[in-house]
Amino acid sequence: MKRIYIILLLVLLMVSVIFLWGKSYKESLREAYVPVENIHEVNTIPSEEGVFLREEYALEYEQQPIDPKHERDLEQYYHNRAFYGGPPTIPHPVDEMNMGSKACLKCHQNGGYVDQYKSYAPVTPHPDKINCRQCHVPQKVNSLFVPSSWHKNQSTKIHNQALVGSPPIIPHPIQLRENCMACHAGPTAPKEIRTTHPQRVNCRQCHVINDKEQKDIGSFNRKVIN
What we know:
By secondary structure, this protein is mostly helical. The protein has helices spanning 2-29, 58-63, 74-79, 105-108, 181-184; strands at residues 113-114, 119-120. A two-stranded antiparallel ribbon has the order 1-2. The protein is elongated, with a radius of gyration of 30 Å.
């Protein structure tokens, strides 16, 4: 009987040694790290909030075929706005009873070809704002408008690189337009401003905001002080 107890004790000791050695070995493989304490929720910068909203579709945008018969150009893009930077008007009939809620998002959240209108539905850069008629108005209405002397302001230039070969700047404010892919990727994007690399979803990594008018101030000459 004593022999059985001795054997069980040796087995238990051997198992303990193997367990402790294995745990020690795993601990030796762990990399050093700095513990982070008192983690607080980080508030996203408003201008960055929607940048990555459609990053999951980036590869799809890159692989989507472009139909030349239905693609838009910049002239059509700006024609659908009362002024540069203004919200686009609604170029098709709308059912007033279904406006708001998620009716508009059926076509404009993810885009795609719409047989009814023979065109691609532009993707909204702000699908969280569902009261669309607050900013977007139909092009054709039965009511009368008061005439005004308003003239459309000119749009910005497309080729606005700071240096030859450098990425173009962002020439417009990005409020309500934080999601770059909504206007610059996929078949709904105007061909002149369609990006060639939608898979690089962090647009602000290379493109900086500058919606100011640029003027040539001449060459820089360093003043020599004797």
